[in-house]
Amino acid sequence: MGFDKIDLNILRELQQDSSLTNQELADRVGLSASPCLRRVKALEESGVIDRSVTLLDQKKLGLKLTAFLQISMDRHTPDRFSVFEEQVDCFPEVRNCNLVTGQNCDYLLEVVVEDMEKYHDFLLGKLTRIPGVTGVQSSFLLRSVKESTSLPLEHLM
C-alpha cells in the first residue's frame, strides 16, 4: 500500500491520540472531515490501523513492579512452544511475550504486578508450573527512560 504525506500525518496523529474526533484529526492534517474519514476507513480496512486502545497509568492502578523475564524451555518443539504460549496468553500479568533468538533463552516476557510478593506468587504459582519451563531469569525495572507505543514512519516517505 502506498502512503502519501497526508496518510502519514493521519497515522502520526492517531498514534499520539486515537481519541481525536474526526474533525480534530482533519484539522490537524489539513483536510475536511469527509475526506479525512474516508482515509482513516481505508487505513483500517487495509489493516494498517490494527486497533485503537486506551493506555492506563499502571502506577495509579497500584501496579508498581515491572519485571522482564528470560524463559528457557527444555525442548524446542512446536507442541512445547504452543503449550507455553497458550498458557502465557491467559495470564493478565504478562504484557508482552516474545519468542526470540540470539539469547540464552527462548522467550522474553514483560510482567506487571503490584509488588514483589505478587511477583513471587506469579512466578511460582503460574509461570514455573508450565510444562517445559526449565529456567527463569528476572530483571526488574528501576526507571523507564522512554516509553512509546508509536511506530517509526520515516521510512515510508
From TrEMBL:
UniProt KW keywords: DNA-binding, Transcription, Transcription regulation
Any Pfam family: AsnC_trans_reg
GO molecular-function term, one example from the UniProt record: sequence-specific DNA binding
GO biological process, any: regulation of DNA-templated transcription
Matching SUPFAM superfamilies: Dimeric alpha+beta barrel, Winged helix' DNA-binding domain
GO cellular component labels: cytosol
Cytoplasm keyword on record: no
Record carries keyword Aminoacyl-tRNA synthetase: no
Superkingdom of origin organism: Bacteria
Location of the HTH asnC-type domain: 3-64
Name this protein carries in UniProt: Transcriptional regulator, AsnC family
Species name: Marinomonas posidonica (strain CECT 7376 / NCIMB 14433 / IVIA-Po-181)
